[in-house]
Amino acid sequence: MTDTSAPFRAPSAPRRPGERALSGLGLAAPAEDPADSSPHAFPDCGTWRTEVPSVEGPEALSVVLAESARLDVPVHRVSQGSGVWMLSDAEITEMAEACAAHAIELCLFTGPRGTWDTGGSTRSTSGGAGLRARGHDALAGCVEDALRATELGVRCLLVADEGVLWTLHRLREQGLLPADTTFKVSALIGPVNPASVAVYERLGADSVNVPSDLTSAHFTEIRRVSAVPLDLYIEAPDDLGGYVRMYEAAELIRRAAPLYLKFGLSRAPGIYPYGAHLRDVALDTARERVRRGRLVLDLLARHDADGGMSPLGSRLPGTLNRFSVKD
After folding, report:
1. Does the N terminus or the C terminus of the chain have fewer Cβ atoms within 10 A?
2. How far is CA 105 from CA 93, 153, 221, in A?
């Protein structure tokens, strides 16, 4: 794997895809407007980090670690979608220790969610309340997951409910969760306008997974009101649209920094909630997500846009705006 002690390399002016050939034909792209660029960065001065999602257990994590070393894919974070409650204490501990040994942040999903609950509205044409925690018991389950995971060494939690996020942030402020715990908002409830992104930041989000179909202009709008790190599938699963935005990676970084590039996978079966009956597809797709990451990094390098990556081991978001928890 890439040396975590490698010095930070500042971004340079990227080359647009096909720029020289198209200019010769009189088809040059319009000049970039510097005002469109994000003024924000991670506290380590990086503009982008990487994430491998859907790493559902220790075995899948081992595949990701091996493949990232083989293909020289730097990984800042791995995330899991099935939930803390789908892992044993031993599995969580094994994953936390392996990630710590490789300076990778481990993010586990919290608790019960509406799509798996007894309510039928999520299966209606309207989709109901989606993944949100239904009732006090579901909220309590998410809190229990958060407490258990952090006791086992996990320092990043994925949430899919505004109330869960605010509750966990208050617990963090009170010291019941470790102060360096970070909260990541799920793509399945991701906000789509600047005001809503700012609200999630103030509720305690340390990174927000926005939907994968936002335009470049949308990212510029968001960056005028919020510096919270954004997570974006550069290739999205089919249930999130199946978009493949590899050629846009450099422009997305320019507009949306600080940004986590998520290496998802389209045309792949769903694996949540994961179990051994899905072992082969989970391991195969984990391996392929890393390869997709290599393709994205190669594109960035070819376009002179691979500078600006946060040093490996970086995980904290910097100072963000929050609502007061004293009210």
Report:
1. C
2. 13, 11, 29
Backbone φ and ψ for 70, nearest 5 degrees, come out as -65, -40
Q: Tell me, what amino acid is at 238?
A: D
Question: For 74-108, what is each residue's pLDDT tens digit?
Answer: 999 999 999 999 999 999 999 999 999 999 999 99
Distance CA 310, CA 80 (A): 22
Write the CA distances from 49 to 125, 231, 312, integer angstroms: 36, 9, 8
Cβ-contact 61, 108 below 8 angstroms: no
Q: Which helix (H) or strand (E) holds 108?
A: strand 105-109
Burial label, 208 (beta-carbon count in 10 A; 0-12, 13-18, 19+): buried
- Read off the pLDDT of residues 164-197 as tens digits, 9 standing for 90 and up: 999 999 999 999 999 999 999 999 888 999 999 9
Query: Which H or E run includes 299?
Result: helix 279-302
- The pTM of the full predicted model, rounded to 2 decimals, is 0.92
d(Cα 14, Cα 38) in Å, to the nearest integer? 15
- Residue 137, exposed/middle/buried by CB under 10 A (0-12, 13-18, 19+)? exposed
Local structure of residue 239 (DSSP, 8 states): G
Q: Is the dihedral of CA 269, 272, 278, 281 positive or negative?
A: positive
Place of tokens 């004293």: 326
